[in-house]
Amino acid sequence: MNVSVIGTGYVGLVTGACFSEFGVQVTCVDQDRTKIEMLSRGESPIYEPGLEELVVRNTRAGRLAFTTDSAEAIRSALVIFIAVGTPPAEDGSTDLSYVEAVARDIGRNLDGYKVVVTKSTVPVGTALRVRQWIGEELATRGEDIHFSVASNPEFLREGAAIGDFMRPDRVVIGADEGDEHARAIMKDLYRPLYLNETPFVVTNIATAELAKYAANAFLATKISFINEMANLCEEIGGDVQGVARAMGLDRRIGPKFLHAGPGYGGSCFPKDTLSAAHFAREVGSQPEIVEAVIRVNAAQRQRMVDKIAEALGAPLAERRVAVLGLSFKPETDDIRDAPAIDIIRGLREQGVSVRAFDPVAMSAARKALPDVELCEDAYAACEGADAVVIVTEWNQFRMLDLERLKESLRQPLMLDLRNIYDPSPLERAGFRYVSVGR
Questions:
Q1: Which domains are seen in the chain, by residue range?
Q2: Which of 15, 95, 146, 379 is the most buried (most CB within 10 A)?
Q3: Catalytic residue among 233, 268, 375, 382
């Protein structure tokens, strides 16, 4: 089976590389010629553990190819995945202009039956619009070619995407009622997983489109909920980690995403919660819980800024902090909606100078934080700082040399916004230790 994936961003590249690992013939398409040239050389433009090796292996095996020629890729494929960006607009809605451009390109080049699949996270009703856009281009050509539209949302975690694709919790396939041909093709494409007894959810398109938003909104809700509990713990002298453990041991709840901190970030949760709330309002539904989650998350970031400012003490204009961790989570270089970026900007607005370090996100951070000094390692960032602030829980920050840290800092003050340290050893080492909800 020949597959084309249009868009070589995070979702598209992982999808294409993993399908090729199954033995499928995959062509990945992007308009960015520089990116395509990099990928053709076996170089990944994004950081994701295991991805570059997968690209190299399957490119050399002839199963994975990269091109800017979308017309040829469309004509040669039976299944075409749309995996382009769907950025948020200012009102919280989803910008579908890239999806529309791809759909119209497909309509201009369609030469026979294809299954066109939305892989990007898109609002409910987008597949219908994709069908309409393709149909309009076919009408302009005077052609009447049968094609199917399907929804196959991704559930990939940055930093663990290869494992998530190869060993997923579930595969969701949405197709029109009665379109058994499209469903059969999609199930055949995912056959290696089906044989491994991966649960399949085969449903209609609207349900598949909503499933991704529902999952992300619920996970974001767990994060915002435990952050509210953390804030309450700080008022009453409780320990949020004990609360989270007590909750997580209840099998109806589970322990995942019950980690207090500076709030959620990244390319999915912020965008998807805003989008879910927007399209729910558009159809006349009031998304009370999702909107509350969005408010709590924004407030949590400001609370972290206030926590740091209070620990530093006045005058803030004379204070310097070392921020460790800039990506929104470990094992990725993605700083989109990263809590660290908002926290640093909030501190800079109050006159605090900032030095920072991240294991892999320095290049992206350089553009987003032009007035922040980026350092070669954690200890260099701490040199002469009044406090060290841990914002992203990279493993290498979990066992810092405390004596070396004390020598680097002006005063032994650590603000651990991810609760990765036990307070007692820090206090014995002479640190003033501030965490979240403890």
A1: 2-203 (3.40.50.720), 238-438 (3.40.50.720)
A2: 15
A3: 268
